[in-house]
Amino acid sequence: VQPNNYSTFYDDQRQNWSIMFESEKAAMDFSKQVCIAKCNSSPVLDAVLYQDLLLGEGQGVEGGDSLEIAYTGWLFQNNGLGQVFDSNVNKDKLLRLKLGSGKVIKGWEEGMMGMKKGGRRYLIIPPAWAYGTQGVAGRVPPDSTLVFEVEVRRVKLVKESSGSDGQSVSSRDSPAPSPVPGLDGFSAD
């Protein structure tokens, strides 16, 4: 996905192709179909598939960052979108979550990494990364693959703070995030 309604991709011979769409909606619809096709063509879905629909602006989010999200979730049925089982798009409240806190399904934690404010992403989440064999009574049958369209409306980066000299300090340049929450960023002092 590129700005101004462009998408680029590589074919089997590693040739680069670009497509310009008439509208943002057409570009997003195409990107959703690409993600569904990837899902349907993989023999086993054992990880989260995601496709950016809109890139957004600013820094990509990491574990520990707080987000406010608008989303819609569908059941993946008959090789495509089934019924909506959850959405907050037409509601007044956005979903607030701290990435990496374990308060949402593992597929969201994984699939939203790197998103930017204003970004939209399509996620296809296998059962093991969603609600597994339990499902959610009355809403999500056991062993369901889920599809979400998520949009990051607000971001609060946890790793940015003001140093003692008034300069902004960020540990985002470190090669890998610490697996232990709260322990990275000490070297910035």
From TrEMBL:
Residues 159-189 are annotated as: Disordered. Keywords: Acetylation, Actin-binding, Cell projection, Coiled coil, Cytoplasm, Endocytosis, Endosome, Isomerase, Phosphoprotein, Rotamase, Transport. Residues 64-156 form the PPIase FKBP-type domain. Transmembrane segments: none annotated. It is an enzyme of class 5 (isomerase). It is found in: Cell projection, Axon; Cytoplasm; Early endosome. The keyword Isomerase applies. Its main location: other. Its EC number is 5.2.1.8. GO terms for molecular function: actin binding; peptidyl-prolyl cis-trans isomerase activity. Pfam families: FKBP_C (PF00254). It catalyses: [protein]-peptidylproline (omega=180) = [protein]-peptidylproline (omega=0). PROSITE patterns: FKBP_PPIASE. One of its GO terms (cellular component) is early endosome. One of its GO terms (biological process) is endocytosis. The keyword Phosphoprotein applies. Residues 161-174 have a biased composition (Low complexity). Coiled coil: none annotated. Interacts with WIP and actin. Interacts with TBC1D23. Belongs to the FKBP-type PPIase family. This is peptidylprolyl isomerase. It comes from Steatornis caripensis. The lineage of its organism: Eukaryota, Metazoa, Chordata, Craniata, Vertebrata.
